[in-house]
Amino acid sequence: MNIKYPEELNFLNSGKQPIEKSDVSIQGKVVVITGATSGVGLQTAYECASHGAHLILVARSESKANKVAKSCNELGASKIDIVIADLSLLTQVRRCAQEIEKLTPSIDVLIHSAGMHSTKRILTSEGLEIVFALNHCASFLLTVLLIPQLKHSQQSQVLFINSEGHRFNGLNLNDLDWKKRLYTGLRSYGASKTAQLLSMLEINNRLMNTNIVVNAMHPGDVKTNIGQNNGWLYRLFSKLFIQPILKDPHQSGQAIYTLISKPEYAYTRNAFYHYTTLELVARHARDRKISPQVFQKTCELCDLDSSSIY
Ligand SMILES: NC(=O)c1ccc[n+]([C@@H]2O[C@H](COP(=O)([O-])OP(=O)(O)OC[C@H]3O[C@@H](n4cnc5c(N)ncnc54)[C@H](OP(=O)(O)O)[C@@H]3O)[C@@H](O)[C@H]2O)c1
Question: Residues lining ligand 1, CB < 6 A?
Fold first, then answer.
């Protein structure tokens, strides 16, 4: 039963809605998936493989990627390529894009599932706060670098695996690396997901006259490896109190597959889905006064010329 909540809390109803399924074939379509070695990305890879996709798996661990590729092959993928990259480093994101360019002239679907949650403030060797670098900058940069391949497809989709965690906000453009504020894992996670949603508005603006659509989704509250990089206390708390109430990530894979395969989702821009239910994001994540600044700042961090993105 749906409870009548104020607008900002309406997302509490979304998880109760039925998940739409799809049996549409994507035989031979080129689908790039980051974070395909675990959880949401892994289940998505399985769904795409069993519907005949040509998969390009982006992973940081070669052995894990090989294992996933073997399973995807058995499930019926038409072709599988692997690109190895630590996506928290933007130099590696650039190399990853170059390798993908060599593998295919055309991309039909780009799914960004690589992500993390860190209870500790960690800076990468490139000086960015790691959660912001991985969850937001990497997905932004990879999308922009692959625009030529996405344009080559007849109709292409980019899907950010975002989160209801964007509601924690935490985004401060003057303190992206949390030097001036007390760092908390939830707020840093919220900052990265908020930045991704605000940037999505600007990317779509620039790609309005192209065949590329960009959308985002929450994959459900599901049992995966997210957060397992954190300390023992976090892991114990998660094991005792969080994991028992989490759902099966198989559902996330099914929902994502529906969003990328059913024609009715192929032309929408700037949507946010909770599984397959359309939802309004928090006010701060749809603020068009701030989105151009977030876009510009992200271009600077990624060493991109914002005027060349269209
Ligand atoms: N689980 C949930 O309830 C939930 C809810 C909302 C949103 N999400 C979002 O769903 C996405 C997937 O998360 P998940 O829950 O499936 O977590 P997960 O099981 O930990 O999967 C994360 C994936 O990202 C990869 N990854 C992590 N750091 C990386 C790096 N530096 N470079 C390249 N790849 C890296 C991991 O690779 P390894 O296998 O090598 O670790 C793994 O494949 C994330 O964006 C997360 O924010 C999850």
Answer: 35, 37-41, 60-61, 64, 86-88, 113-116, 134-135, 161, 163, 218-219, 221-222, 224-226
Residue range(s) defining the domain that contains residue 187: 20-302
Max CA separation in the chain (angstroms): 51
109-112/156-161 β-pairing = parallel
Q: How are beta strands 277-278 and 272-274 bridged, if at all?
A: antiparallel
Write the CA distances from 41 to 12, 55, 57, 110, 189, integer angstroms. Answer: 24, 12, 9, 12, 18
Average pLDDT over residues 219-233: 93
Q: Which atom of ligand 1 is nearest to the CA of 222?
A: 3
- The model's pLDDT over 21-36, given as tens digits with 9 standing for 90+, comes to 999 999 999 999 999 9
Give the list of residues 6+ apart from residue 265 with CB closer than 8 angstroms, or none: 157, 215, 258, 259, 271
What's the structural domain count of the chain? Answer: 1
CA atoms of 141 and 165, how far apart (whole Å): 22
| Residue of 224, 230, 281 to mutate, ligand 1, most atoms within 8 A of C-beta | 224
Does residue 1 surpass a pLDDT of 70?
A: no
pLDDT digits (tens, 9 = 90+) for 159-218: 999 999 999 999 999 999 999 999 999 999 999 999 999 999 999 999 999 999 999 999
Which domain CATH number covers 29? Answer: 3.40.50.720
Give the closest residue (by CA) to ligand 1 atom 26.
Answer: 114
* 32 domain residue, yes or no: yes
Helix (H) or strand (E) holding 158: strand 156-161
Residues 128, 298, 293, 184, CA torsion sign:
negative
Which pTM does this prediction carry? 0.97
Residue 231 lies in a domain: yes
54 located within any domain = yes
Counting from 1 in the atom list of ligand 1, the atom nearest the Cα of 130 is 31
pLDDT, residue 130, reads: 98
Q: Decide if 307 is inside a domain.
A: no
pLDDT for 12 equals 85
